Amino acid sequence: MRETDLKTLKEMFRRAPFIADLGMELQSLAPGDCVTTLAIEPRHLQQHGFVHAGVLATLADHTAGAAAFMLVSSGSSVLTAEFKLSLLRPARGERLRCQAKVIKPGRRFSFAESEVFCESEGEERLVAKASATMVVVMPGDE
Amino acid sequence: MRETDLKTLKEMFRRAPFIADLGMELQSLAPGDCVTTLAIEPRHLQQHGFVHAGVLATLADHTAGAAAFMLVSSGSSVLTAEFKLSLLRPARGERLRCQAKVIKPGRRFSFAESEVFCESEGEERLVAKASATMVVVMPGDE
Amino acid sequence: MRETDLKTLKEMFRRAPFIADLGMELQSLAPGDCVTTLAIEPRHLQQHGFVHAGVLATLADHTAGAAAFMLVSSGSSVLTAEFKLSLLRPARGERLRCQAKVIKPGRRFSFAESEVFCESEGEERLVAKASATMVVVMPGDE
Amino acid sequence: MRETDLKTLKEMFRRAPFIADLGMELQSLAPGDCVTTLAIEPRHLQQHGFVHAGVLATLADHTAGAAAFMLVSSGSSVLTAEFKLSLLRPARGERLRCQAKVIKPGRRFSFAESEVFCESEGEERLVAKASATMVVVMPGDE
User: Fold this and answer.
1) Which residues of A touch C (CB under 8 A)?
2) pTM, entire model
3) Is it true that domain A3-137 has CATH number 1.20.1510.10?
4) How far apart are CA D104 and CA D119, in angstroms?
5) Per-domain residue ranges of chain B
6) Are the beta carbons of A131 and C88 separated by less than 8 Å?
7) pLDDT digits over A56-99, tens only?
8) Cα C99 vs. chain centroid, distance in angstroms?
9) What is the full DSSP assignment across A62-120?
10) Is B28 helix (H, G, I), strand (E, B) or coil?
């Protein structure tokens, strides 16, 4: 793993105001893999008491981006071109855990997937799944 | 338009903590149509200074849900089954405006689309577009 | 497994003209799982000599539908509401194999995924991946 | 419009075996826009007598690709990275017409949308809608 980029990535989480504000935390990183968590608070919910799809989307997208970033060459970064999120079950519980992996890295764009699990009373269930297309932005690209 | 449900919908925005916390505002409503806005604040940004994709996803999803809700029979509600968000341009500016419309209503599920525009120095640009499948939840469905 | 429905499903493949015309074959079935194959012919290709994305989409969709069908109650059927297909690599070779599984079955709709592999000179590579929302159509639904 | 590329595109339709075999025809072209049609034949149907989703996906994808191709610089081509297809209504009738437009062109990738209409007894209805991410492949890219 690239030490410098690992630092960059941890910085990316701290320096991304929406991620910091939401309370998302980086748990682990490896080339093409990333795990994040979020302690569910009342402010994350929608009108029926479940975690809002927008919170799940944020976790899915940002974690996938971090997983993809770990595979690009030094100096490059990644941007999401698009993602699709399927909402498998209502998310109610104490904690979300998102696990992302790159299913096909590429020089110009990468495909990644994220699974979001919700932990409730010690049990984890898959609540959402996303697939994303990440564009590699090389130095010099605007 | 169903007066009771219009009230319900305005309530839905106020009572959805994540929507209220984010600062999303309901601007207008009609059967199958909804417009919302968000005044962009530093806490909505990602590490490069653009609005985070998760914020755009939240607007796109919630506004589409409200547009779909306006077309279901009284007592029913809607849940997002899935949505796809395409990120057309980086979003940088003062305000987001999201315009959602139902492109095919149905008794059991509806298809909706959302366009998210970013206003910067008086000019608006389309920054993201979403397509969503919304499930109609009838009274008695769990 | 429901014997009657297994017969129904094999019939579905024979009686679906586009599937029969394309040359798609049912290999195996289990509740929530389905495997199909296609012997690649020149007529399946696009202008660069790769299998056309439309062929991959057909396999991904139809195989996912069969997997979902195996989990609905007798007399019900399934319809695709939407699917997304990611094209990971150009598909060039002798044979396609598609493996679909239901990742979340439901009474009213199910989520399924399909992976399409391309076999070339004895080696198989993942060339496309799809995620689909399948609607359960019960007897009496129009 | 680039005359040479217009010829190239017409050639692309003739030289794409799956497109020719399916019976898809190029109707009109402009930068970022493309219209195609397909005379529905029994071999295009699924088991319930509707046009198979795979046929709709092929039209949606190929027409979007042609629309995107019209905007790239000479010598470059386009490849589909991913597309999502929403199936709004069962397609039954005499003819399909697909209208694609690029909603955001780019130097490295473009976003396009396709609408598929089905004509039955002189009336046209929107039966499917797709959104696609198209990658621009420049000379020298592998």
Assistant:
1) 84, 86, 88-89, 103-104, 111, 126, 129, 131, 133
2) 0.95
3) no
4) 29
5) 3-137
6) no
7) 999 999 999 999 999 998 889 999 999 999 999 999 999 999 99
8) 7
9) HHHHHHHHTTSPTT-EEEEEEEEEEE-S---SSEEEEEEEEEE--SSEEEEEEEEEEEE
10) strand
